Amino acid sequence: MQQLMAMQYAQHIDQVKSWDNYSDNTIFLQCYLRGSLQRVEYLQLKESVRVIQQNLRIMKRTREQRFQFLCLFDDCKTLQATIRTYFAVQKIKSHWYDQSTRTLQATIHSYLLHKKYSALKKHSLCLQACVRTRQCQLESLRTLRVCIKSNRTLPHDKHVDSTCCKQSYLTKRMKELRDEILSMWTKTWTAFNYRAKFWLVFNSPTYLNLSIHCEEFDRLKTLSEEMTKSPDKHKEQVARFEAERKELYRILKENTPPSVLLSFYSTLHIDIRSKHKKDQLLQLLFSSDMDPVVSATITLGISGSSPAHILDVTSQIELRRAERIRTNLMLTVQSSLQSLRALHRIATIQELTNKRHLQYIDHLRDELGLAQEVEKDLELEHAQLYHHHTDARDSIDHDHDVSFEHSSLSSRPVALPFPPPSPLPPLSSHDGLPVASSSSSSLAHKTPQQGDMLSLPSFAPHLPLSSDVDQYIVTQLRLQKRRKKYLSSRFATKKSLDNVFGGWYAAFTYTRIPSIQTNTGNTKAAPLGNKHENKEHNALKNEQADEKGDEKTHEPPNEKPTEQPTGQSNEQLNGQPTEQSNGQPNGQSNKQPNEQSNGQANENVQVNNPTNETDKEKENGNEAEKAKENEKEKENKSDGQIQQENATQGDQTVIAKTD
């Protein structure tokens, strides 16, 4: 059909004459093709429906037959399973019986085999251990021998290699220098005898010969420069060389045997029948074509007939060699002496440093022992004071409450009751202790006010007895003695002294008797009315003076002394209060500067007794400002000045206290 269509299409194409005929034929052909395609699709669809219907009928018939087959198969399978189950049960029973029998037999047999195997394994391990130990020993011995051999040969090989390297370097360097020296000898017209002796004597490649060759090269270089600059020097050198050559020619002509001359000619390959053989021989000596060793040998052979000349050259060469050896030895000895001096200096410095360190360690050990002793004494005294205070706690009268002000950084404020105040007579010296100024009469009439607190430690809320005061004084004296002993140490300074004794004084503030507080001019005393009170008052005055002395040691030396009124009116001495106006005391006032001269502390207690609280607050404010100014001045000073001033003032304070 396609061929028919193609033929028709070809005929139509032939008949087409124009574009319209062509388009009409194309449309006809398309319609024909589309109709053919639709007919083919319809036939295919019809065939597919027929096949599907046939397959459906076959599937229904197959499903019914399969159902019948499955029913028959299930029945057969049930029957077979029953029969197989019966046979399986019988088989399992027989299997269990056989397995139990075999297990029992295997257990008995395995026990016997395990016993034999254990013994065999034990013996095998012992044998293997012995064999392996022997093998390891042999291997270790072999390795050790190899290591020893290698360690023996390795240093030798290194030494041989280093020696070969050194020798090769020396040989190479010597060859270079000798070649340059040969050319320089020719330029500087050096004598043949000197060349020959130098060449044969310094022929071995050693460091000494290398240094001599270097010196010879430098000498020839300097000589060449001098000859270039000075014609006279050049003429002199040439004349000397020509004179030696003439002398050698004369020796060859007159003193040399013919046999020796023939040997010289044959060695230098000079024709015997030629003329001027002697001149040719002298021309060939130390030339670039000849071996220098042969030239040196011939030169020495020629000069052998004149022993004086050869002896002169030989002595010159030997002296040069000896001079070089002497110079090297002298430099070696000098460098050794310098190194020994340096080592001795370093050892001496190290020895001195070690000695200082040992002294400082001994000082620290003594300081630690002293600190431990003082701490033990303080602990013992604290315990004794605590027991005394607890015993005296119930014996003090609690009827009248009198409060005093006492500022202490290391204690807490506690309100203490005291008996009513009474006039206090002037104090006298007691037990060799210093006496404070008579300022307690004005303080004796100070009425107690509510809110006044006294700083005391927690274990001493009441005033101690006279025995406690004696013990406290003994403790203070002991501490001063230890402080003086500490100051006598070599390394002790005032700064280190303050660091060490700061903790001890802080500990003493807990046991300090709180009746007097010195603040650069203000002194407050407690009114005491019995016999023991006078003794306590004296002790407290001593403590106040010690504290004031400590404050003076910390003041800068250039500080101006403060002037405060110390005089008191007749009314105050009689126990009657005086009237004050504008914060100024009524009565005679004597100004006394607070100074230290010649290392002794002026421990006069200055007392100022204002009558109202406003004046008291003003004075406290002024004192606080002065203390701040003193601290600022101390900070502005350098550490070295403070250390020097503190050390000087500390020594003066200790001397004043001991006096």
From TrEMBL:
Residues 443-452, 563-612, 639-652 have a biased composition (Polar residues). Residues 530-562, 613-638 have a biased composition (Basic and acidic residues). Residues 416-426 have a biased composition (Pro residues). Residues 411-458, 517-659 are annotated as: Disordered. Residues 427-442 have a biased composition (Low complexity). This is Uncharacterized protein.
